[in-house]
From TrEMBL, chain A:
Stored SUPFAM superfamilies: Ferritin-like
Name of this protein: Phenylacetate-CoA oxygenase
Domain of life: Bacteria
A biological process from GO: phenylacetate catabolic process
GO cellular component, as recorded: cytosol
Gene3D superfamilies noted in UniProt: 1.20.1260.10
Organism of origin: Rossellomorea marisflavi
Taxonomic path: Bacteria, Bacillati, Bacillota, Bacilli, Bacillales
Automatic annotation (TrEMBL), chain B:
Organism: Rossellomorea marisflavi
Residues in PaaD zinc beta ribbon domain copies: 102-153
Domain named MIP18 family-like: residues: 2-74
Protein name: Phenylacetate-CoA oxygenase
A Pfam family assignment: Zn_ribbon_PaaD
Length: 272, 159
């Protein structure tokens, strides 16, 4: 397949499909990195606090790399893209915007660690599948970004896989809580695996492989960990609360954006 | 002139590991002089590294102090991706001085990552946390000399 660069983008249709894909990739990483960062100081133990914040930092870095690609397409500056867009313009999956649990990180956070482990693990597997496909993307700069992201993702995957397997095989209430989390995450995980209304043109232009192929690779990647922990495979995944790729979102996203872009709204020209 | 700039960059240290320069870390990809304008392309070790802006500022400052350079453009690029085998032999020694074990010279897979203590060189070490105080480091413990220490994570495109 022919590869294109910024100055050789063939037509407007290609540019639109590319931008649409980039918004999904960046917004997914951005909001999940934010949710992860809310765990700072609250993770189960000190080592996890260190590890999780590293992962969130990397993930925010990945979002920033992709926003940079959008900026080069003339979609706005990185800060505008990250902080300035209202919820209806966001393209992240709904499951990634969901709060970590009841409470607030300042007031009585009753966050659910099982939910965090399952959501991050499933998402990291999906991201790995995507990055492997994007390494062959017809858009050169995106293929290059995927190679870079992939080197770091290796450690994230290892990390979440370890948590998933260990908690699933642990005694006490762990298994039950993990199983509840698996079913909660599955109820909306289809939102992560879909490429939205522009999905077909994305694969036609060779930007990424077809949605169905990617989804089946995700399912396949989970076979071994599921079999070894007694989780039913293949999982039944749905999108009960709507399609974030179409700009459908919950109040959780509105609240998150309100908090995370507070400083940006006070002084949009500030440096970070 | 490019060689002069390279010499200058050897004085720019990693803000979080001040024994090692960005040259020894393998972060310098390209230096280009056009008249009095210098373009420098750097490879970030990890994409989300918060030290990047500080490094950029320090590179600019160091270059502008050199006669003959009026303008400096520092850019971070991701191609080629930074990999841990870009560390120079000198860089590997400098890491040890700071108490950080260097990554393996040729990475095959994580299971074969034998880590020697930077203080006593023993391989009788245990991994305490794959993720350390910065994205590029892990935390370990030496069972021989009983020192906690860090190791730089191997990063390779075969991952």
């Amino acid at each position: 397949m022919k590869q294109y660069e910024l100055n050789t983008i063939p037509d407007e249709g290609y540019r639109q499909a590319l931008a649409s894909l980039l918004y999904q990739l960046a917004d997914d990483d951005f909001i999940l990195a934010y949710r992860g960062s809310e765990w700072l100081g609250l993770a189960p133990h000190i080592e996890e606090d260190v590890a999780f914040s590293s992962i969130n930092q990397d993930t925010m870095g990945h979002a920033s790399m992709i926003y940079e690609l959008l900026a080069s397409l003339g979609e706005g500056t990185e800060d505008e893209l990250a902080h300035g867009r209202p919820p209806e313009e966001r393209r992240n999956a709904i499951i990634l915007e969901e709060v970590n649990g009841p409470g607030d990180y300042l007031i009585e956070p009753r966050y659910d660690w099982a939910f965090a482990v399952v959501r991050h693990y499933f998402y990291t597997v999906a991201k790995k599948v995507r990055m492997d496909s994007l390494k062959q993307s017809s858009y050169g700069p995106l293929a290059e970004a995927a190679v870079k992201i992939n080197t770091e993702l290796y450690y994230h995957l290892l990390h979440w896989q370890t948590w998933f397997t260990q908690l699933m095989n642990a005694g006490g209430e762990a298994k039950q809580r993990m199983e509840d989390a698996v079913s909660r995450v599955c109820d909306d995980f289809l939102g992560v695996l879909t490429l939205g209304p522009d999905g077909e043109s994305m694969s036609r232009y060779g930007l990424i492989e077809e949605e169905a192929i990617l989804a089946s690779r995700w399912t396949e990647a989970l076979k071994k960990p599921f079999d070894s922990t007694g989780v039913q495979h293949p999982p039944v995944i749905r999108s009960l609360r709507g399609d974030g790729r179409k700009g459908e979102h919950t109040g959780d996203l509105t609240d998150a954006l309100h908090t995370l872009s507070e400083v940006y709204r006070l002084e949009a020209s500030g440096t970070w | 002139m490019e060689q002069t700039v390279m010499k200058i960059l050897e004085t720019v240290k990693d803000p979080e590991i001040d024994s090692i320069s960005i040259v020894d870390l393998g972060m310098v990809h390209l230096i280009e002089m056009k008249g009095e304008r210098c373009t420098i392309k750097l490879l970030p070790t990890f994409a989300g590294c918060p030290a990047l802006d500080i490094i950029k500022g320090n590179v600019k400052k160091a270059c502008l102090s050199q006669p003959g350079i009026k303008e400096v453009d520092v850019r971070f690029v991701y191609t080629p991706p930074w990999t841990s085998d870009r560390l120079t032999p000198n860089g590997r020694e400098k890491l040890k001085e700071f108490g950080i074990a260097p990554p393996p010279e040729k990475f095959t897979n994580l299971e074969e990552w034998e880590i020697h203590c930077p203080y006593c060189d023993s391989h009788y070490t245990s991994m305490e946390n794959l993720f350390g105080p910065t994205a590029c480091r892990s935390i370990l413990y030496c069972k021989e000399c009983r020192n906690p220490f860090e190791a730089m994570k191997p990063i390779s495109t075969i991952m």
